[in-house]
Amino acid sequence: MAASSKTRAAALRKRLTAFRNELAGLKDGDADALHRARVATRRLRELVPLLHLTPGDSEPLTRRLRKTTRRFGRLRELDVLTRLVEELRAREIYSSKALDLMTAAFARERALLKQRMKTKLTPAKLRRLSARLEDAARHMETADASAIPRNNDRSDRGWRWALEARVARRSTQLRGAVDLTGPLYRRAELHDVRIAVKKLRYALELWQETGRGGASADLRTLKASQDLLGRLHDLEVLIEWVRDAQASFAPPDLSTWRVFGVLVRDLENECRRLHAHYITNRSKLLKVCERTAERPESLAPSRAAVS
């Protein structure tokens, strides 16, 4: 698969297929399908700017994917919080009444969001998004089939150079975010690292698919960091919900309030433990950044390729 359009079209088709495979599950309300669809939209967002589409095609696609990711994210957050509460329930040390209150609150919020999505993110809108991505893939395949080999080779160099530049940019962004974190627990800075890890991971996946190799260990490091920071983020959101629930009791229920207070304390301790684990492994992220921050000179476009 030496030609650029084939490489880019294959990358697009792989991510488009992953997205399409979840549409039926989304219609049925499957929480796992929602998660996978959201990840698929993130991967598509990392790829679309590299497809060399016209601004009239690329920018609307990027905007639509961003909105879809955001709307999936709100439902996904509630699904994750519900699962966290079930984990707490399994420990059998917290009040069932308090946990039931939280589960009921999440269910009500999820029902409201699903109602809004009936107009904001309908199955028809998702199908139209899929169709636009399909049109882009077909356009690249048609262009590739009609291009002479020399032009394909030139385009291939340009695609790989653009992808390497993307990886370098994402790596620099991650390095900057990691440098701002330290022994003090700061939620905003850790959130920035989590987002930067995701973006570098998805760009590096594309880079690996070009056949350049050598990225598997770095991808494992990024995934492990993403999982850790994602868990930390989920616990922080749950703490916010618990505190809001405490403040909402009218009249005050002191026994339940105290149970929620204990729960907040335990969740905060878990956050501190995860933060310490992140600090211990922070150097691994920095090493990934060192390896991916610079483009190999061999991939820089020749003067002929950009003229």
Report on this structure:
The protein has 307 residues and is mainly α. The protein has two domains: 1-147, Four Helix Bundle (Hemerythrin (Met), subunit A); 156-307. The chain contains eleven helices and no strands. Helix 9 (216-248) packs antiparallel against helix 10.
Overall spatial form: flat
Biggest beta sheet attributes: none
Number of strands: 0
Question: What is the average of the pLDDT values?
Answer: 85
Spatial gap, N to C terminus? 24 Å
Percent of residues in helical segments?
over 70%
Order of helices and strands: HHHHHHHHHHH
Domain count: 2
Quaternary state reads: single chain
Question: What structural class do you assign from the helix and strand content?
Answer: mainly alpha
Rg, rounded, reads 22 Å
Strand residue percentage: under 5%
Total count of helical runs of at least 4 residues: 11
Low-pLDDT stretches are: 1-6, 297-307
Brief rundown of the structure:
With 307 residues, the protein is mainly α.
Which tags fit this structure?
single chain, mainly alpha, Four Helix Bundle (Hemerythrin (Met), subunit A), 2 domains, 11 helices
